[in-house]
């Protein structure tokens, strides 16, 4: 599976290519799905362009995207969109149009309560485990772990030189050693949940190739990187998806022939 992350916390300063309005997000989502993405992650925006969990913004975003595509659509619940944990839970409870899934960063205060509120509403949870945090340890001990849709192994090391090793360390924290022959099986990850591995900025492409070699789901999009592997500026999410699928398949084929 390749998920497209349409915009993230980026704003207008990152260029017009980043979709900010519901209609722009919907157009970008449709192009990305046509290019091969099978799942969508999006950050609804306030009128001033900031990430928001408001029911009005969420409904407008989801309705616009779903009018164009029929793949699952997920949203963020990042603390930067609503810093107060109790208010974050209330936002989830106030949503009038529900996403298929939502990411919860397990190292953030109130993560368990937010995840529980999502599950109570029938919304699948992506457990965001950031490298360099205690998210993996917290998730391993969580009673909600077996109920999440998948684990997002999120490599925050943005160096192209060290991101791959940081990813391997994170995967090891999430289960058995991924560097051994064949990698870990599904049941060997924490709580037996499937893993989606992705990187950030300069680490995006090395980590995506590692996901291909390990046979893990991954994601790509303007949230994670604004550039193609050669450093050129990406023209769209669809262009990133097209290139990601090619890179992933090459890495996967190379792993199979070793």
Give structural notes:
This protein is an alpha/beta fold. It has helices at 22-35, 55-66, 85-94, 111-120, 135-140, 163-173, 204-214, 237-257; strands spanning 2-5, 39-42, 73-76, 101-105, 124-130, 150-154, 195-198, 217-220. α3 (85-94) links the parallel β3 and β4. α1 (22-35) packs parallel to α8 and α3 (85-94) runs parallel beside α4. The mean pLDDT is 94.
List keywords for this structure.
globular, alpha/beta, 258 residues, 37% helix
Number of helices: 8
User: Mean pLDDT, rounded to whole units?
Assistant: 94
Helix content: 25-40%
Main sheet strand line-up: 1-2-3-4-5-6-7-8
Overall SS class: alpha/beta
What distance lies between the first and last C-alpha atoms, to the nearest angstrom?
23 Å
- Poorly predicted sequence stretches spanning 5 or more consecutive residues: none
Q: Specify the biggest β-sheet.
A: 8 strands, parallel, barrel
Which strand-content bin applies to the residues?
5-15%
What's the SSE pattern? Answer: EHEHEHEHEHEHEHEH
Furnish the topology, listing elements before pairings.
Blueprint (H helix, E strand, L loop, with lengths): L1 E4 L16 H14 L3 E4 L12 H12 L6 E4 L8 H10 L6 E5 L5 H10 L3 E7 L4 H6 L9 E5 L8 H11 L21 E4 L5 H11 L2 E4 L16 H21 L1
Parallel strand pairs: 1-2, 1-8, 2-3, 3-4, 4-5, 5-6, 6-7, 7-8
Summarize, please.
By secondary structure, this protein is an alpha/beta fold. Helix content is 37%, strand content 14%.
């Amino acid at each position: 599976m390749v998920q497209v992350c349409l915009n993230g916390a980026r704003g207008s300063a990152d260029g017009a290519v980043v979709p900010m309005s519901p209609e722009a997000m919907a157009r970008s989502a449709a192009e990305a799905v046509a290019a091969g993405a099978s799942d969508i992650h999006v950050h609804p925006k306030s009128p001033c362009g900031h990430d928001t969990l408001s029911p009005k913004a969420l409904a407008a975003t989801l309705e616009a995207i779903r009018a164009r595509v029929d793949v699952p659509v997920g949203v963020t619940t990042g603390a930067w969109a609503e810093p107060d944990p109790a208010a974050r839970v209330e936002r989830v409870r106030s949503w009038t149009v529900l996403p298929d899934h939502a990411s919860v960063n397990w190292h953030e205060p109130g993560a368990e309560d937010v995840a529980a509120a999502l599950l109570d509403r029938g919304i699948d949870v992506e457990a965001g485990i950031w490298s360099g945090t205690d998210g993996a340890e917290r998730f391993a001990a969580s009673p909600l772990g077996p109920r999440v849709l998948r684990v997002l192994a999120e490599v925050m090391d943005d160096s192209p030189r060290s991101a791959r090793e940081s990813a391997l360390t994170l995967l090891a924290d999430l289960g058995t050693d991924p560097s051994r022959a064949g990698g870990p099986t599904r049941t060997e990850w924490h709580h037996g949940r499937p893993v989606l591995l992705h990187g950030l900025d300069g680490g995006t492409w090395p980590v995506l190739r590692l996901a291909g070699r390990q046979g893990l789901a991954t994601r790509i999009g303007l949230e994670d990187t604004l550039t193609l592997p050669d450093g050129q500026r990406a023209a769209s999410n669809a262009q990133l998806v097209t290139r990601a699928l090619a890179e992933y398949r090459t890495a996967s084929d190379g792993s199979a022939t070793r």
